[in-house]
Amino acid sequence: MSAPPLRRWARGLAAVAGLGLLAGASAQARHDQLASWTDGPAKKAIVEFVKATTDKSSPDYVPPGERIATFDNDGTLWAEQPMYVQAMFALDRVKALAPQHPEWQTQEPFASILKGDLKAALAGGDKALLEIVMATHAGMTTDEFRQIVKDWIATAKNPATKRPVLEMVYQPMVELLAYLRAHGYKTFIVSGGGIEFMRPWAEKLYGVPPEQVVGSSIKTKFEMRDGKAVLVRLPELNFIDDKDGKPVGINQHIGHRPVAAFGNSDGDRQMLEYTTTSGGLRFGMLVLHDDKAREFAYGPATGLPDSHVGTFTQALYDEAKQRGWVVVSMKNDWKRVFPSGQ
Amino acid sequence: MSAPPLRRWARGLAAVAGLGLLAGASAQARHDQLASWTDGPAKKAIVEFVKATTDKSSPDYVPPGERIATFDNDGTLWAEQPMYVQAMFALDRVKALAPQHPEWQTQEPFASILKGDLKAALAGGDKALLEIVMATHAGMTTDEFRQIVKDWIATAKNPATKRPVLEMVYQPMVELLAYLRAHGYKTFIVSGGGIEFMRPWAEKLYGVPPEQVVGSSIKTKFEMRDGKAVLVRLPELNFIDDKDGKPVGINQHIGHRPVAAFGNSDGDRQMLEYTTTSGGLRFGMLVLHDDKAREFAYGPATGLPDSHVGTFTQALYDEAKQRGWVVVSMKNDWKRVFPSGQ
Question: Which site from A91, A255, A286, B26 is most exposed, i.e. has the minimal number of CB atoms within 10 Å?
Fold first, then answer.
């Protein structure tokens, strides 16, 4: 991945990660790793939880091997409005592949996408969506797909803000990932997004290596091609890592229950339940998008209609309060939202 | 896991693993980590490969994050004769569960198992096998299954040798796992065996944590039971991590191609092809069971008929020679086979 935005990010993250590697860093230095958080209740809850689970004299001490923290991606680690980044990718790929598919000029949902009418394209519901995903995510080897994603994301821009999608990562959450790792936590992404869509950039962006990314997937098939073993991506769903699927994916990939889980929508409910109902001191956190000035505002506490992307219902909000999950107000708990300083 | 045999193992392994953590250990000290290997061609090939991929001045240098090594389990890390350990578990579980299933007294394949006639039980082929697996591996939560496996393995004995199965691990391979980790490799198990059957003991036995175990699986379902989130194991196959499935499982769980892969049978062929045909210096190794005196003898180079458990065909042997995979002779390359010194 050689494009300037990603390089810039990689350098910034290396600096953040480096802090955590300072042996014998004082409690104060560790505290500063969360510099983009205001000194409010959310930061206090994080620091107290990490202290309680990593101090050997604490009754809530968790051995290093069991310090598993899982993070949703869209809306939790980076912006998901006005649409998921992977949806932007799929639409761009339809346009890029159109010359090889003259039939798409008249065939839905592709014809509407090519005319720029997204609403008409999605009128076909799940079937249309699946056709778009399979036309853009299957039919190549895993190595080829990785390169396509790397090339695309290096220059992709958010259609609402016109800023690189790689710059719309949440700086406080990047700090939180590094802070947890500095305290012996293994950090995993557990997202409804495509596992192979996230892996090409998750390590440079978040410090999360490919083997610690859990996501949705399509099936693949082993083949020998010109003497080289490859995996071909098939147009067939394998696993949907959302809602009920998140604990299933966690168990399949990680094999432990997490000790801490971070999300922002109804798709994360079961992951937080699986994490926090297992006994012992556990941590659940939901990011609430209530900062229209710096990012986007949606969800029950904003007074605005709920969003189809990143749905955060009143029922989830009520459950969070009842279970003691921390609800992060982007407006009040974050000094800055993006690394650019905004 | 509190039974004495496993405790003993854990202590032994901790000692081995500790060697690898000595900062600045000399090349000689590292070499001694493979003390159970004779100074033959297999050990030489391992040491040279690790040196070439971890020495920064080497043209074959591999950065730490990409140092992925995958190991088959049955027949590669521990004994698989006269039957897979997981098959012993399934048969024992049928006997343990029989009082709750009076119908099994007359219902195949259970009736034959209860009479001790394994051959008759397996006459039903794959269908019978699947019924045995589902009757013994499904219907409980993942937490309950973990405990059942832990309790069982603590006292399980190999029916041929009457020795604890936990003592029939291959000492040279345990040393190899620790040696690779000491050189910055992440070690994964990639086995046809059940992922949730292996995880409860793989960390103590091999130093491989649950999130680095890849295996076959059945489906699970999220449920709330008495206010606690659980996953229930369903009698439905999810994934077979064998043959063509091993590269698929590696890609799904690890997301990198391995740099080194270790196996012992035709079930490992595609994993080794996927590892060694990707360009760059790569390492493939197959363990040949040619030591009747200390373990078991089967496979093409032994002059004995091939085995249905851990099949190692002449075709695989020929491919190994052609591709430059190292074939380990247990008889000649290993000073001792088991930690007991045998």
Answer: B26
Answer yes or no: do A277 and B252 touch at CB < 8 A: no
Distance from CA of A36 to the nearest CA of B (A): 28
Sign of the C-alpha dihedral computed for residues B293, B295, B301 and B302 taken in this order: positive
Question: A209 and chain B: CB distance < 8 Å anywhere?
Answer: yes
**Residue partners of A212: CB distance under 8 A and separation at least 6:** A186, A187, A188, A189, B211
- pLDDT, one tens digit per residue, over B191-238 is 999 999 999 999 999 999 999 999 999 999 999 999 999 999 999 999
- A245-253 vs A269-276: helix crossing angle, rounded to 10: 60
A-chain CB neighbours of B213 within 8 Å are: 255
Measuring CA to CA, which residue among B328, B213, B308 is closest to residue B263? B328
Q: Which residues of A touch B277 (CB under 8 A)?
A: 224, 227-229
A274 and B229 within 8 Å at the Cβ level: the answer is: yes
CB–CB contact A244 B253 (8 Å)? no
Please list every residue in chain A whose beta carbon sits closer than 8 Å to the beta carbon of residue B231. Answer: 247-248, 251, 274
**pLDDT band, very low/low/confident/very high, at A277 (cuts 50, 70, 90):** very high
Instruction: Kindly report the nearest CA distance between residue B39 and chain A, in angstroms.
Output: 33
Is the whole model's pTM more than 0.95, yes or no? no
Q: Is B159 on the interface with A (CB under 8 A)?
A: no
Cβ of A244 under 8 Å from any chain B Cβ?
yes
Burial class of B309 by CB neighbour count within 10 A (0 to 12, 13 to 18, 19+): middle
The alpha carbon torsion through B104, B109, B114, B116 (nearest 10 deg) reads: 170
